[in-house]
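Appendix C reproduces, verbatim, an entry submitted by the partner laboratory led by Prof. M.T., so that reviewers can inspect both the input and the predicted structure.
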Amino acid sequence: MGLPKIAAELAAWGERLAPAQLPAAMVAKVEAVTLDVVGLCLAARRTDYVAAAIAAAEPGRHVVIGQSLRAAATSAALINGTAAHGEDFDDTFEGGPVHSGAVIVPAVLAAAEHYQLDGPRIRLGIAAGLELLCRLSLTAPKAIHRAGFHPTAVLGSFAAAFAIGVAAGAKARVLADAQGIAGSLASGIIEYLGDGSWTKRLHAGWAAQSGLRAHWLAAGGFVGPGAVFEGQHGFFKAFAPSIEPLYDRLLVGLGERWVAETISFKPYPCGTMVQPYIDCAIALQQAGAPLAGLRAISCETAEGIVHRLWQPLEQKQAPPTAYAAKFSVPFGVALGLVRGRAGLEDFSEAAILDPELLRVSRLVGYTVDPANPYPARFTGHVRLDYADGTMRELRQDHLRGGAEAPLAPAELVAKFAANAAYGGLADAGQLRAACAELVAEEGGWRVLAALGSPA
């Protein structure tokens, strides 16, 4: 008899999980991720891409965060996930990278209404889903992106299905079959990088709704392949063919060491690996680095992010859309040097036409540092060279908001309030309280109604 399949090992762990097993640090992380995701949904509530997702919704009774609309569970998961990921301001996991909250929280909240789950079960499901998505991202570093897929999208379907099953108290057989089914529902290519179109925004929501469908099919008796991960025609052969998966990173210490405790929160609404470069640029601006006389701006970078954040260089220096600007290191550096900030309002259609931003952005180039630690660490570097021969330079060896420099609880609360205000909600105190109650001992699915009709 062969070794247990990976899906079966995950399922056995998921069936054993109980709310009391969550360490305090993981409980705190679930609370923070939930707050962050709801705030992001509020920030995006009046955007055109959320309106488009709402237009495609199926009718139902499930809460769409920040909207009076109610929708089918799968539509609510899709819209909420799309809103949470839409501004690229959601959490990230160093070492993946993946965005876990925007997938898992919308999936579990939709399931919570469907199954009428209490706070501890919601909290447990979110924790399990965050952990699985983060661990899955460690098994094939850089290889999923290299194959042309978005890791959050394709891995998210597995994690969402698992999160829902754990929250609902599913048996191991259902959890395993749901993983097998999720492998055939996983999708999400990165061609949006070519023209700044919207599909990346969709990926988290699509994974959330795919997780719901996978769980429901498995619960109904539909059978999925047991070797969905490691099989000859399994997920990693299809989505990460350039690498032999590091399955020990997925399974060793599962349930004993929670890697999701290190999930990071972004200070800027743009691609994760752009952020340390923005920090360097802002610090140079605050130190008085002049823009006059600049001859060139150079950045050392990791080979693994060049195809997403640096190339084609001419397009990254002059992004075709505001969304494309979020995935451009040159534009992020220009924002930091010119404006000294990079907020939601700075990634706009007006900003990408700003003559001074474009002038500075077109000066930014890169060299690949073969010793760069990506994806284990996200670093930044900006060097300013002037026509008179002088130079200014700054490096940052970590992601601010990450494990080495986490955002303080007060900063996360301030981010939530700012996101709500951006979405037109000046006083979000009651909504913040509802986020905490949602995953609390006495909370649960009934609290969701407060998130669906904000004042």
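Residues 199-219 form the longest helix (21 residues). Additional entries are available on request from the coordinating office.
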